[in-house]
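Case study 2.
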Amino acid sequence: MIFPGHVFGFTLSPRVAHTGALVTGVLRTDNPRMKTLTDLLHTEFPLIQAPMAGVQGAALAIAVSNAGGLGSLPCAMLAPEALQRELAALSAGTQQPWNVNFFCHTPPEPDAAREATWRAALAPFYAEAGLDLAAVPAGAGRVPFSAASADILEPFRPPVVSFHFGLPAPELVTRVKSWGSLVLSSATTVDEARWLVAHGADVVIAQGLEAGGHRGMFLTATSPHAPPLRGSLPPEGADPSWGGPAADHLTTQMGTFALLPQIVAAVDVPVIAAGGIADAAGVAVAMALGAAGVQVGTAYLCSAEATTSELHRAALQSEAARHTALTNVFTGRPARGIVNRVMRELGPLSPAAPAFPLATAAMAPLRAHFEALGSGDFSPLWSGQNASGCRSLPAAEITRQLTQGFESMAPTLHRWRGSLPPEGAAIPAGGGPALESGFVVIFRAKARALDADYSAMAAQMRELALTQFGCLDFTAATEGEQEIAVSYWPDEASIRAWKQHTDHLAAQRLGRERWYAAYSVEIAEVKRRYSHPAAPDS
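Prediction:
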């Protein structure tokens, strides 16, 4: 069986296996939606690693960016000194684009009565643990994006800045854009997506109900007493008395594959799918439904570069991960995590929880106490509904596996570069090689080790062949350590010119020294073609 591979940046989809000429049919993975987003992000793939506060630092973002995706750094829980330190590490650790993420909530006014109600709800747990509830200080735990945040950020001029819970004030959005930064934000409804675009978002993240961590809701409230969840900017005509039970507002939330096509139809900016996407198949489905790219979080939680605790990792890789729920007991806002004791006993959505993020302060001592005993019963075990992709692998390998979903979608998205068209047939937009006869180069190799330098060289060789030497098409496949690359050319002179180019000679040398245990090259002339289903002239 042939699996999608990426020799020198090209792929062969399994769905092409029924097409043939002198060699199997070929395709290029250059659908316009992917190109639009990768052009904006300046990444190899339209894949964003979701920012996940509390379980990662710069190391995970660096690994993903170096693997061709967009690595993200969560900043909402970082003190100024820590933010400065992580930004320095991130900018030094990769030459590729990266993203920083901030919250845009409105800090609530202190409410002594609500805090007293919350502490009363937690009192039995404190008594069980032998902890002094009166000694717990109040505290926010998370801060929204501000002018002070921008002051720290500005010298680094991050390529991408993303937001959760809306957008910051207009002057802050303008300031971020003045650095040349791309602005992203999460929408959980069509109305939120439209609002984000109207207020300056360059790209919208469609966050489905399956997503782990905090819901990005900002045009609704989550409890009878909470302030409107509108970020720093209220929507035009918004009723300032908005409120109501959390469950009422959660009825507006949709699954990713219901929400995604509706947002795609409603806005004229690229839309990124997020929530429940844990493998290449999920990536492919999201792209088929109109996504310009995907954002993935849960699949990275057990990666080598994540700082996820051992308790959390064990839960993610256990049967417990099959049962997640939205809960407000850890922070005050709905967020999806694996169901544990405190969620069951207080109710996942507790009316006693104070407004975001004030619930965190009184929960923190319980979490620390029970984690020291080896229990995650009072820990926020954030997870999406699909934890099947959680594997103890390097983030670069997780990224590579996910990006195969983009490659496999090329035929579905009408970017076929299949077998040669019938004589006299019009070449469709993005269609097959425009030649009546020609040559094919077949490169076979046994891989030794493929690293980040290989990916960069692969992309360079692809562009060199296609843009400077007349190559008509180029694709590849992998089966275990065996790889094959196939390229179509109009004549042998073009092949010779490409192979003699300085950069190609350097790639050959590196291939022999570092990447391949052995390889062979065959050059053949295309004499006839056929396909299944049969082409009209077969």
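The chain has a mean pLDDT of 82.
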